[in-house]
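User: I've been going back and forth on whether these two constructs are worth ordering. Before I decide, could you fold them both?

Assistant: Sure. I'll take them in the order you sent them. The first construct and its structure tokens:
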Amino acid sequence: MPRRLLGLFSDYTPKFAKKYVDLSAQIKDVFALYEREVRAGEFPAEEHCFGIKKQPT
């Protein structure tokens, strides 16, 4: 049901479904942007990461 409500079908609209929004294009764009940023080394940046502080020895 959620796929039909969110418009995540593009080949056809089933007769029993009403497309309230078409998120397909937006989702594809977001994944493309994510891929570009990862490949370019822009994401993750330091503010998106965490690490373990070194303990004094």
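The second construct, handled the same way:
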Amino acid sequence: MKKSSTWSLVLLMLGLLIIFNGDFIGYSEWFVLGGFLIILLGATLCFVAFFQIEKGNAKFVNLALSILVIFIINWYRPFEIIRIISWLKNIS
């Protein structure tokens, strides 16, 4: 695995951990926002791996994992994205 694929995998797992760890340490919009941003950065690095034409199958695994992570978040917390968008709108 090259750098982009490795970092993509690490960031996807870290973002998922941050979002679902809020149940144990208390809900905070900042944690959820940070988790979403980390997941988006991981998904972006997955596409960077495709554009750099990295060798190996890690880029395909990361693409499937990023789709799966987004599906899991929408399955277990369906209105989380709407809550974050409305929270960001009310800040400004």
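Notes on the second construct follow. Helices lie at 3-20, 22-25, 29-51, 58-76, 80-91. The chain has a mean pLDDT of 81.
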